[in-house]
Each structure stands twice: as C-alpha cells, then as structure tokens.
Amino acid sequence: MRTRFLIIALLLAASPAGGDEFTVLSCNARGLSAWLAGDDPATRLAIIGDKSNAYDVALIQEDFAHHSALLRGTRQPIVERGNPSRFGRWCPICGGSGLTILSRWGRENLLELANRAYRHCAGWIGGANDCLATKGFQRARMRLPGGAELDFVNTHLDAGRSQADREVRRRQLDLLRKRIEAEVAGGALILGGDLNLDAADEEDVALRDAFASALGLANSGARGGSRWPTLDYIFYRSGGSLELEVVEAGEDASFVHEDGPLSDHPAIFARFRTR
User: Fold this and answer.
1) Which of 47, 142, 159, 256 is the most buried (most CB within 10 A)?
2) What is the rounded distance in angstroms from the CA atom of residue 79 to the CA atom of residue 57?
3) Got the DSSP string for the chain?
C-alpha cells in the first residue's frame, strides 16, 4: 500500500501543475473613417467586438475612428487602448496607434500596462499615409488563471512597399526589441499584430526573422488562407518557469458578415497550453 501511494505521489510531482489553456486573437479591424474605408466600418467594428468575446486575449489594430462601436460589441472586462496621436487636437484627421487589447480575464489579472509610440514613420501623402497615425506598441503583463504571469505585446508597423517604408519598419522593430529586452528580459512572451512584413518578400522576411531570432521568438503558425498576403503574425516564446505550447493556430473564418470579410486582413488566432 505504501509503495502504491509513493508511486502516485511521484507521478503527481512529475506532472505539470497549474497549467492553463487559452486563446489569442490578432485582428486588423480596418477601423478607418467611413469616407476612407468606403463602407460601414462602425457596423463591422461592432461585429468584430462581439466575435472577440470568444477569445481570452484579443489584440486589435486599426481601431481608429470607431472605438465606441467596438465597445458596443465586446463584453470583455479589460479594454485598453494604445498611445494617442502625437498631434493632439491640432490634426483632426490624424490618429493614435489604433491599438486595443481586450481580455475576458478580470481586471485584477492586468498587472502592468505600457503604451509607447514609435519615433519614425514614412509617408504623409502616399506611402500608405502612415505618418497620419502615431503607430506604436502595447505591452500588457497578465496573470493567467493558473497564477503564472505572461506578457502580451500588440503592435502595428509601418505599411508601404518602398525602401523608406522598410527602413522605418526596421527602426520600429529595433525599438520594440530594445523595450522587450529591458522590460520582459527572459520572461515568457506572446507578440501579435499587423507587422506589414510580407512573407513573400525576401527583405521583409529577413527583417522578420532577425527580429524573432534576437528575442528567441517562434512563429505560432497562425495565418490566413491563400487569399490573404501574410502580414499578420502571432509569435511566442517560453521563459522563466513558464513553458508555452501551441495547440492550434490559423484563421478564424467566422469573421465575416453579409457583405463579406469584416476587414481587409484575416483574423488569426492561436491556442496555447502552459506547463
């Protein structure tokens, strides 16, 4: 009998305890003003907000002009927007980062939040007009239901296909890397967003892979189907005493309405397990 209890105790000690399984969404919502979007973005954002309720953490980009519509749809207790416009009220057509983090974990699970703007942009008129926004990144340290702590990063990099755009993306990634190294150190991390790094472009791929390698990040494999260019990613790494494993990753094909897709980007997701 004592031998049986000893074996059971050893098995329990060897088994991972306090493990969690959770889902992460990354979605560029295309929340531009209606005259720029050419459709009804308020309706789309409300639907995106509603569909985000299915995820533990949702990383939203281009939440510019219709944040109230997103709020109408979501029931998430954690809703955190990114940095505002560098121009304040002096530029009515300019926006902030357009970033929003949503989570259905309780407010007490948000341990730390940082919103930072990138210093560089390319394109005022043309080049995807990136300078009209103040793009940046968010970092949220969350306590998982099992008690472990994990950092989530949401970002949107410069768009455009010129060398000037690519150089800005390089500088933005350099700043992001330095902040992660300083603030997360060797801890576990999930990073998602619209990186505007095209998986079909060799120079973009070189930037992407150098950034991921420097931080020890792995690609979750989340991506849209063949109709979408691969610009959006969910990366991750284990760290400290927390090990992350990808259970499932891909595109959430339910992000559509009667007129078609809810955005001009796929809604990608990854399901993680910790141990």
Assistant:
1) 142
2) 10
3) -HHHHHHHHHHHHHS--S--EEEEEEEE-----HHHHSS-HHHHHHHHHHHHTTSSEEEEE---S-HHHHHHH---SEEEE----TTGGG-TT-B----EEEESS-GGGEEEEEEEE-S----SSSGGGGGGB--EEEEEEEE-TTS-EEEEEEEE----SSHHHHHHHHHHHHHHHHHHHHHTTTS-EEEEEE----TT-HHHHHHHHHHHHHHT-EE------TTS-S-EEEEEE-BTTB-EEEEEEEE-TT-EETTEESSSS--EEEEEEE-
d(CA 207, CA 19): 34
Number of CB atoms found within 10 A of residue 203's CB = 13
**pLDDT tens figures, 9-59:** 434 443 344 589 999 999 999 999 888 888 999 999 999 999 999 999 999
Residues in CB range of 227: below 8 A, 6 or more apart: none
**154-196 confidence digits (pLDDT tens):** 999 999 999 999 999 999 999 999 999 999 999 999 999 999 9
- pTM, rounded to two decimals: 0.92
